[in-house]
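Side project, low priority. Logging it here so it doesn't get lost.
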Amino acid sequence: ECSKGHPLYLKLYCDALFNGAMEIEDVQRLPDKWETILENIIQQISEAGTNEDILDLLHLLAISKAPLSISAIAEFLNIRVMKAKTVLDNCRVLLLETASNQRSEYFQFFHESLREWFSKTQKSECRTMAKRVANHCLDWRDCQEEEVRHYAFTHGATHLYELSDREQLWQLLHDEAYRQAQIKELNRYQESY
């Protein structure tokens, strides 16, 4: 009854049971909305909101324009790869893992509703993360990981546009070195204009 047939509610409920966030006996106290289950899961995995790395990862995934590899997550969050793996392991209940190529596994939220929920309920934190990612994309010459540089060339301008940072966007679009490097990296002209 509570789920009203919503598959996200059912998945979050089953995951909460599996991970110990809820007990079968809690069936009498089932939340009316899937968002309540999500909030409980986030409280549990983020240690009641005290684990900043986990919260940063969730905000990063909420604003990212594509699935991200472990090394890209580590670079965007300025943490070591091993720490990024640990953070990802703690958040797996909310993630979808895909193998985009033989070298890396990529992560994103398992459902678009999670991205929308974070963007709506944690707007300030998501905007702060979007600025952080946009600034990292602006520093494309200093990107350590090839995947991050590729992300910067593909999505950097979009982040600046969504942040309404017209001055930085104008500078980026008129940076000839950026455009040449972008075309070389992506082997196409589509994102360069």
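Brief comment: The beta strands are 68-69, 95-99, 105-109.
Revisit when time allows.
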